[in-house]
């Protein structure tokens, strides 16, 4: 009888040292379990930050389609279209063929808060409907709250096609 | 017999759960007397939230959180689904009611000093609920997934993108990538339907627990100051001597207001209906005029009216300051007077904030800073003459975009000053200089106007005060554009623009 292990009686429980250890062990094990679930979840949600999509050149039409001196709206797929994105995979730019023959492409997003600017050909101005930002034909600020001129996309001509580097929504 | 079985079942349930006693204790806990009608707004918010949960679950049974399909689903819910239009209306006006009632509840709590000791943490949980409610409203507007939703998303990304150092990462997180697209809507859907409501449920539970734990604050009395050392003894004495059970003595008013909230929301949903769907969510369509829902319109106006260069600081600092200030309110002023008549600064602060928001809201609903792209050329009767320079000038006034920003005889935009009588304010030379050089929030037109065009434009502006008042367009065809009607067709000179010809400085 004397050699039998002592079993704690009701109300006694573990000794304080062992109780502290068991409490810490329980908390640590819970933290491990939470991390096993939480880290992949957070990683999945933050995926766009961890693996951003690269920019892509998009053809917007043959060179001859664009008349010198004219500014037109061109639509193209964004750099990372998803199969279920539908029309939201489209984006746009204001493309101008200069008299010299080269091209310049402005983002349609106002540099103030991203609203879509419109080109008024006779006035030679871009105007924003949201907060009244106005830009000259070269994209520089003419009036209103924009802190800088319109963003520009790189443009190139390949195999007779005008190509725009489709990139992220311009944010600065 | 049946009664006995039922009774036995209830007793067995109660023995094993204790829920009936718990519920009774909560419902009949003593509250201070004479709480009155000002204490109903908290429960009104809760009712609005429950309506949002119920109508939201119903809408979610049809909604498809796919960027490519959501708009068509919204069309289906609005125009074809049984009671879909009504349910959308309930959800929209429920959201509006929730935001409005949260604001009123907060003002009532602040003005009556209910946030003071020992209810500081309940105020903090309420502040969190306020901002999450606004986030719910905004994310809900985006789930409409029309053009306005698309551009509101871009706007939100641009705003959050101004955060120093991590702005671009935050914007990318919000959009679900570099651009708006397939990942964006499902992200907002997850936030709107799972994450934010779960947070609201948790905070509402905490909020209600603290209401029970700390008790409903007694109506404030002038001169009766909150003293943390004696508060609990005083409060318990009040409840012991004059307390009344929450149900039904105080709760009946909550029920009346709750039914009023439900009826109002249902009535608005039936008679007014949900906001109309805009154009399909195609980010390449630039002919858009995005506007936020009504409760964010005041902030939309603030962003337009900020001094240039300040918005980056304001967009980040202002919301952060508002959050910090609201969280600090119970820390800074947790004792002393509660009655608004003894707290004039508190009343003044609320008045200032409410009047500012109303003022900005009115301004936002007018949006005078936005160009009026729909402005039509002035009619022949408005031009009032066949004189070639004036008629040509009137047409130029429209074609060159002047009319988008300036009004003539009530037609045009409001971004710049009304030019109907500008000739009384500026000389011919002043007008030429102003048009050619711009300045004062007006672009320079030197590069797009020839000297002759500038002369015609100035002639037109001058004629507004020299000609007789225009006839009202009553005669048939009198409202036709001046340039397309009986006006002589003087061909516009094909000269070089002023700037190219080096003439801008002449003016």
Task: Kindly describe this structure.
The complex is a heterodimer of chains A (172) and B (507). Chain A is an alpha+beta fold and 172 residues long. Chain A has two domains: 1-52; 56-166, Rieske Iron-sulfur Protein. Helix content of chain A is 20%, strand content 30%. Chain A has two helices and eleven strands, in the order ααβββββββββββ. In chain A, the strands form three sheets. Chain A has a four-stranded antiparallel sheet, with no helix packed on it. A four-stranded antiparallel sheet of chain A has the order 5-6-7-8, with no helix packed on it. The model of chain A has no long low-confidence stretch (mean pLDDT 91). Chain B has 507 residues and is mostly helical. Helices cover 60% and strands 2% of the residues of chain B. Chain B is built from 20 helices and four strands. Chain B has a two-stranded antiparallel sheet with strand order 1-2. A two-stranded antiparallel sheet of chain B has the order 3-4. In chain B, a hairpin with a 2-residue loop joins β3 and β4 (411-412). The longest helix of chain B is centred in the middle third of the chain and has 33 residues, at 182-214. Chain B starts with a helix and ends in a 41-residue tail after the last helix. Residues 471-496 and 500-507 of chain B have low confidence and may be disordered. Chains A and B meet through β2 and β3 of A and α7, α8, α9 and α12 of B.
